[in-house]
## 1
Amino acid sequence: MAKLNINGKVRDVQVEADTPLLWVIREQVGLTGTKYGCGVAQCGACSVHINDAVMRSCSIRVGDVKPTDKIVTIEGLSSNSSHPVQKAWLAIDVPQCGYCQSGQIMAAAALLKKKPKPTDADIDAAMTNICRCGTYQRIRAAVHMAAGNGKGNGGRSAETPTRRS
Ligand code: FES
Ligand code: FES
């Protein structure tokens, strides 16, 4: 049995203490925006915020989360997709298959909370989530756009070459 504060709601869940937090978020609570990728804290698909820091929920035991810890999932980032990171993601059309993107957005939101005007180096250091579709250029551009620092050019010239016949 555990008591968890997820997206501002306190939930009682019947699970063993060593159950990964990701399982509880998806299976017990039914919030499926947070994804399972590697299960070993490498890919970032399962990223959530705990007390404003980005954490990989596949590798956190529910028993190690306190009832007072504030967990935020992609569903709780904003009520209507109005978070600046979500708006920039939409404007730049970042996702390709989309699978990694909730984790990417959570990592970007946590970065901007800590560092509202990140440099390219800050973004590269903080955004270690893996994207198998290779959307890294657009992710970086969207983080800049969300930060309002005028570099949100979409990164498309490097990533999407024009086909010529
Ligand atoms: S599923 Fe958690 S880091 Fe990959
Ligand atoms: S958009 Fe497909 S894995 Fe990132």
Note: The pocket of FE2/S2 (inorganic) cluster (ligand 1) is lined by residues 36-39, 41-46, 56, 58 (CB under 6 Å).
## 2
Amino acid sequence: MNKITTTEEFEKYSQSCCACLEDKLQGKDDKRHIVLCGGTGCLSSDSKAIMERFKQVLEEKGLSDKATVNQVGCFGFCSQGPFVKIYPEDTLYRMVHMEDVEEIVESDIANGTVVERLLYVEPGKGEKVVKQDEINFYKKQRRVALHGCGTIDPENIDEAMGVGAFKGLKRALSMSPKEVVDEVLESGLRGRGGGGFPAGRKWMFAQGSAGDEKYVVCNGDEGDPGAFMDRSILEGNPLAVIEGMMIAGYAIGASNGYFYVRAEYPIAVNRLKIAIAQAREAGLLGENILGSGFNFDCHIRLGAGAFVCGEETALLNSIEGKRGMPRPRPPFPAVKGLWDKPTIVNNVETLACVPYILREGAAKFAEVGTEKSKGTKVFALGGKVNNVGLVEIPMGTTLRDLIYDIGGGIPNGKKFKAIQTGGPSGGCLPTEYLDEPIDFDNLVQKGSMMGSGGAIVMDEDNCMVDVAKFYMEFICDESCGKCSPCRIGTKRILEILNRITDGQGTMEDLDTLEELSATIKTNSLCALGQTAANPVNSTLKHFRDEYIAHIVDKKCPAHVCKNLMQYKIDKDKCIGCGMCAKNCPAGCISRTDYTPEGHKLASFEIDSTKCVKCGLCMSNCKFSAISKE
Ligand SMILES: Cc1cc2nc3c(=O)[nH]c(=O)nc-3n(C[C@H](O)[C@H](O)[C@H](O)COP(=O)(O)O)c2cc1C
Ligand code: SF4
Ligand code: SF4
Ligand code: SF4
Ligand code: FES
């Protein structure tokens, strides 16, 4: 590839890439184009081998000149992968396996007949859906941060330029740094990494800080359990994040940017490396970019998996080679950050929105959303919901739309109990809040928070005390130990929660929980400690009756807490097959009597004093004769 050194060369090259991609997507080149999801989820279900098989079968059938085969980033609907999409018809096949390749090629590629059995079926409706955009999961989504993900080959800069890569940068370079900051301020973009701080204001502080050297840092640590938004963006369109970082660099006067990405994301890291190398080769990273005099280069640092290293000052310590512990703020990184130089730290998704803002204009970005939360937000939707995956929704979408329209509702006819947003710093919202719009301030007001985008749906089988305990265990493990309110306080909270779930809790424990939560919140050094008690507070507020049932009745209403429940055999339903006894690892199920005929086993019984509550008996009983009490 020749270096692109001027805006005219850029314009010409960018236009040819756009035309080429459009020809491909709209079939103007008289070819079919097969794309396979190359996100971590689908790759772990063999999508790479399936892609090779497509190439092989096309070759065997003499169809290689009729169709191309490529990988793209995550489609978002990871629970239905591996995905195969065929352009220009936009046919989407899901859960494709090696054995299906030949049929797709023979039926669809050779004869134009859709393979019906591989189409997505709407839950509860039984309708088969051919095109991606017609699936309910996608209908209410809008791709801004995920722009290009699932459409382009993330390892091909030409495809990224086909969806507009570097156009935002080109426009930014034609403006003054102050105008760029003003544009970001006007867009209303708030940080997507958890805090929701206005990106433009952060940039303004860094712009105004004196320094011979400044830095932009992209936070790709993503330590929240269940979160994979940033990973998917980096895997699906790494150049968008690089471009966002460059625009930030131009705005504040930085010429170097650091990506801090967790080492457990090897595919994202590899694609980022490829994207940086390709951008350098194209002259879009390096010296005198597009003849503007602006110099910028990117570097990657790997995080070693500590949740606290996602906290911006701990992250800076980690990049500097120090132990990843938070620094007191102020001074804020915008004044004294990496190697004591003015630095902005922005989340992957925040930076991925920036090229859109500069390319399309602040007003277009701000068209979507609520008054104080503009744009879209990516969520990793998981838990007890039919459609599990990555979704990007306009701010202001209600929790009900997220769970029922996009998420397809709760599986197995179970009842919704709560949605947990914000990960370990967030909270659980019950049914009464289903019609609340999702935005930064509203979620905080209701006792949860947006966080970085984890959204876990819970049904009647979830115990809310157990949920609070799960997050507190995580926080205790991840507290860096620098300050005592967090180090000791979270441990004491966990001890109390353990007592309650073991049936040893007292009503006074609830007061102590509230007291400890308040102390940790106000006295901890960083937001890990300051928000650590949120899951406890929100469950105490909305599900206090469950805490009381554990303490007073010694019962876990959801039958989750092992020490408060028992497995029971219903004698009327038991046909005496003996499967439960055969599978019981504790040997605590025994035969009790015979039928009057004397040959058929009538019933079995569990000795609950020996039972280890493994649940194997229940899952092995084909007659639903075993239940939890
Ligand atoms: C314990 C802890 C972990 C965090 N982890 C992340 C993370 O993985 N990614 C992230 O972008 N922000 C994380 N944050 C928030 C960062 O400190 C910081 O606010 C953010 O990177 C700023 O970017 P933004 O303004 O674009 O959101 C974390 C904060 C805390 C307290
Ligand atoms: S609040 Fe917790 S994680 Fe943060 S500095 Fe203190 S001990 Fe470390
Ligand atoms: S598996 Fe079910 S039906 Fe069979 S003996 Fe056990 S409880 Fe009875
Ligand atoms: S729960 Fe496990 S240990 Fe208890 S009776 Fe059933 S199989 Fe045996
Ligand atoms: S990884 Fe394939 S759809 Fe997400």
Note: Residues 191-195, 197, 219, 221-223, 307-308, 310-312, 345-347, 350, 452, 526-528 surround flavin mononucleotide (ligand 1) (CB under 6 Å).
